[in-house]
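A brief tutorial aside. Many learners find it easier to grasp structure tokens once they have seen a single protein encoded end to end. The record that follows does exactly this for AraC family transcriptional regulator. Read the sequence first, then the structure, and try to relate runs of similar tokens to stretches of the chain.
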Amino acid sequence: MTRFELQSRNLASEHVAHSHDFHQLILATSGVTELAMEGQRERVTARRGCLIPSSRHHEYEGDGSNRTLVLDIPTAQLASLEKGDDIERLFDKPRFFTIPPALNQLTHALANQLEQCPGLQNEIAILLLRALTMYLQDEPASTVTQLGTRCVSERLDLERLDVWLDQHLADDIRVEQLAGLCALSPGHFHACFRELTGVTPLAYVQRRRLEHARTLARHSALSLGHIAMLVGFRDQGSFSRAYRRHFDIAPSSDR
């Protein structure tokens, strides 16, 4: 039977440099790990994963507060899997890749399942590999960074931007401010952001405002007018119209 080793770990804030004779998949559900491999350095976060083929030298340093799934995959084991050739192609080359919301949710769920039922690590590992294989087959090449190429969105840290946005939802948020947080020009930031997320920066901000508004509408006793103000709408009417367009339901009905 194919055996993998899957662990939910906290990668410490210490520098590690090594290689190993097995493939490795690294996915984070929280926190940040700086990882360098073959001349490219990126951050492994809930939105960015990494595939490390066997024998490839790499260096990493965690932030000490991350929650990271580390899957070790013996090279001889992949061929015994059903559709093993497809999964084996994941490790043709080292690469970083963007993690969409659906894959992020699956990673969270499987990390929780692993902690509750460590004896199922092999089944969880196979499910995770198959989901990743399907995702990377369907995704355009622009979402995957193969080492030796430059990722146009490499300076975008969506986790950092999300934290900043959540603190400023009531304010007037401009693209120039977001670009400045990433040390990019507004035009370059706009193009990179759209390539990475599939939406414009302002559409992303609007979506985040409305998602926070929905949480408040469903789980707080605040008036809709107060909620509208907290998430940056000038009045309750414009808030309600945007809410209905986005969720196909009025906020008063949703609560």
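Self-check: The longest helix spans residues 201-219. If you spotted this yourself, you are ready for the next section.
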